Amino acid sequence: MDLDALTVILANRLAAVVPAGFYVEAADGMLRYTCDEGRFPGQHGDYHCGEAGTFVRENFGLYGETDADNIAGVATQTLDELQDYISEATHDPWPGLRSQPSPHARISGATLHLWYACVPRNSARLEVPVAGLSWGNGRVAGRGACL
Q1: How far is CA 85 from CA 32, 35, 57, 99, in A?
Q2: In 10 A of CB 53, how many CB atoms?
Q3: Are residues 133 and 140 in contact, defined by beta-carbon separation less than 8 angstroms?
Q4: Measured between alpha carbons, how far is 26 from 22 in angstroms, rounded to an integer?
Q5: What would the pLDDT profile of 39-60 be if each residue is shown by its tens digit?
Q6: Which of 1, 20, 126, 146 has the fewest CB atoms found within 10 Å of its own CB?
């Protein structure tokens, strides 16, 4: 399993859907979340958001016995931690309207699906093609994932 490649793919796709002023980058098997300083209130209301991240490489293996279980598990963790960072920075329940929707991920066939529950149907959807990542006896490939 090429965890560095998975991390880069997740970073590129998530960076495309976060609110303006937020950034998602990949380095050394980790996703790093940052924002424009002074633009958002931040957790303490001091307009300093700092940074946060998800340790994809280190956390892979904690979610089950199969690569598929671990891909879905670390993807859910990524959605959860990114959501927390943005919501704490903005004081809004991103990507929800009134409350934090739950993050979810699953592999169906050869496709990794990512989503937040309770997000309005007219909200942005994201295709996350992950073709070429080997896992188990199959490949994570196909049309991609919706977020």
Answers
A1: 10, 9, 20, 15
A2: 18
A3: yes
A4: 14
A5: 999 888 898 899 999 999 999 9
A6: 20
CA–CA separation, 103 and 76 (whole Å): 6
- Contact of 34 with 49, CB cutoff 8 Å: yes
What's the one-letter identity of residue 32? Answer: R
Distance CA(59)–CA(90), nearest Å, equals: 27
Which residues share a beta bridge with 103?
A: 116
Q: Which residue has the tokens 């309207």?
A: 97
Average pLDDT for 54-69? 93
Indicate if the pLDDT at residue 125 is higher than 70: no
Amino acid at 1: M
Q: What is this structure's pTM?
A: 0.81
* Cβ–Cβ < 8 Å for 127, 145: yes
The most confident of the ranges 1-5, 127-131, 133-137 is: 1-5
**Residue 99's closest CA among 120, 79, 74?**
120
Q: 3-state DSSP call for residue 139?
A: strand
